[in-house]
Amino acid sequence: MVLDGHTLARVAELCGLGSDETLRRAFIRHLGTTPSTYRERFSTTSPTGRTRLL
User: Fold this and answer.
1) Could you say which DSSP state residue 4 is in?
2) pLDDT in tens, 3-52
3) Residue 23 burial (C-beta neighbours within 10 Å; 0-12, 13-18, 19+)
4) CA-to-CA distance for 34 and 50, rounded, in angstroms?
5) What is the pTM for the complete model shown?
6) Which of 16, 36, 42 is nearest to 27 (CA)?
7) Cβ(25)–Cβ(17) under 8 Å?
8) Under the phi-then-psi rule, with left for phi > 0, alpha for psi from -120 to 50, and beta for the rest, what region is 16?
9) CA atoms of 13 and 1, how far apart (whole Å)
10) Which helix (H) or strand (E) holds 26?
11) What values do phi and psi take at 47, rounded to 5?
């Protein structure tokens, strides 16, 4: 979901977390990076403008 272009608040809501800050802390704790850094590193822009994981 993070790579699909949803806002962090929406991803947190869809995952059942209380807030985007809770999601951010979980990302750092489990993946060692922030959601924005994760997006930059693991997403690419497809011809349709949507992001996808390679």
Assistant:
1) G
2) 677 888 888 888 898 899 999 999 999 999 998 898 888 877 654 555 44
3) buried
4) 20
5) 0.65
6) 36
7) no
8) left
9) 11
10) helix 20-31
11) -60, -25
